[in-house]
Amino acid sequence: MRRSRPSSANAQGSRASVAGARSAPTRRKQPRSRIPSLRWEREAWRAGAGTIAGVDEVGVGPLAGPVTAAAVLLAPGDKRPWFRRVRDSKMLTAAAREDLAEAIEDSIPFAIGWATSQEVDSRGIVEARRLSVLRAIEGLPTEPDGVISDALPLPLENVRVEPKADARSVSVAAASIVAKVARDRWMTELCERIPGYGFCRNKGYYTVEHRAAIDRRGPCEAHRLSWAPFAQGRLEL
User: Fold this and answer.
1) Which residue stretches of the chain have pLDDT < 50?
2) Is 112 domain-assigned?
3) I need a surface site. Which of 19, 24, 131, 171 has the fewest CB within 10 A?
4) Strand order across the 159-162 sheet
């Protein structure tokens, strides 16, 4: 296990009616969060693959901080108690993410990959995302036989690219949790090294507090200077 550092459709109910009376209003079920499964991993294992890496990256939208990716490695027959609890990291509370990240990191191989804010500026966000994911995969203790990626094409063989994979695949959901927790921890450390921007609270996103700090202090080395508002010479929310 390695941790590097950075340099829905609604369902519609039936319509009941009584002869001679107005039909009752259609009842729509509330949207339900998709529960991740091992369907794609099992398909790969049945096709002869051994280990499967689920990968996902976070930190795409913030104005500051790195893009952070995680890769987690599952082998045929893997069955962990936390499998039933994983969800897309965005659907979980911070406390739930921390608890699950600890369970994941203690039980299966994983690795973290980073792309710095400077690499976002020089390469663009799509390439920075790809770079962070490839670094995470390279950090695994063994090369996976297949990869499941959340909508991001990768220059590798045996990659399955699926939209919303972090909500549908156990391995990708686990990767999204590990990546989110790793990035949040990094931004909290950054808040101590570079105080005054509230990174421990805003995690680099462009909040009112963050804008006010930039107005007072200007950008720091953690900011993505190629992004609006910096590139356009204006600060707007």
Assistant:
1) 8-32, 237
2) yes
3) 19
4) 2-3, 110-115, 67-74, 52-58, 146-150, 159-162
